[in-house]
Design goal:
By secondary structure, the protein is an alpha+beta fold. The protein contains four helices and ten strands. It folds into two domains: 15-162, Phosphatidylinositol 3-kinase Catalytic Subunit, Chain A, domain 1 (Ubiquitin-like (UB roll), Roll), CATH 3.10.20.90; 169-209. Residues 71-161 form the Ras-associating domain.
Length: 214
């Protein structure tokens, strides 16, 4: 069950607490993605973000897979379900910067304002999700929760329908989306026509066997 949870208050840690938590974090890591504490107090590490995008994204590269529609040098396509990306970030990086880095890594041309980063937590046999504000720091959340993704994971989604910033979409993007919808509609129409044609053939064959003239 995916339920919305109230945002938890941010608890600031002292330098000594950060150091202790990083040591504890690194001792529990099983995938070698450890955190590093720098002399200036800033620490770096890795987060994994699952991409849960329902709408097609627009990329600059022509080397994409899936259902596509082309417009000049841009391609709109659906990202495969369950795609997970790993980012190396610092404790100073904000949610907005993480979103921008993810889109840049995928060569996505869409406006970052179309997307939101969520945290997903598992507690008491329920799954809680909470949209993170642009100013929150994902690596801090990762450090506090520990390395286990079942305790905390990050998900990139589009804004909810009522929150979509339609002005962020360009005319070529909207035309690409319409082209994809037209293509899918035509594909579904052809499937239906073939299905009913097969039914018709079987019915006519059955009628021919039952009713014979003369």
């Amino acid at each position: 069950k995916d339920v919305q949870k109230e945002r938890e208050p941010h608890v600031y840690l002292s330098k000594e607490e950060v150091k202790e938590k990083i040591q504890s974090y690194n001792s529990s890591v099983t995938d070698k993605l450890k955190m590093t504490l720098n002399a200036n107090g800033i620490y770096t590490g890795f987060i994994k973000v699952q991409m849960e995008l329902c709408r097609p994204i627009t990329v600059q590269s022509s080397q994409s897979q899936g259902r596509c529609a082309h417009s000049n040098n841009e391609t709109a396509f659906y990202l495969p379900d369950g795609c997970v990306n790993t980012l190396h970030i610092s404790s100073t990086n904000t949610v907005r910067e993480v979103i921008e880095a993810l889109l840049k890594k995928f060569f996505v041309a869409d406006n970052p304002a179309k997307f939101a980063l969520y945290k997903r937590c598992h507690k008491e046999d329920q799954v809680y999700t909470c949209k993170l504000s642009d100013r929150e720091h994902p690596l801090y959340l990762r450090l506090v929760a520990g390395p286990r993704t079942e305790m905390l994971s990050f998900v990139l989604r589009e804004h909810e329908t009522g929150e979509v910033m339609w002005e962020a979409f360009s005319i070529p993007e909207l035309k690409n989306f319409l082209r994809i919808l037209d293509k899918e509609e035509n594909e579904q129409l052809q499937i239906l026509k073939k299905r009913y044609a097969a039914y018709r053939d079987k019915l006519e064959e059955a009628l021919g066997g039952v009713w014979k003239p003369g």
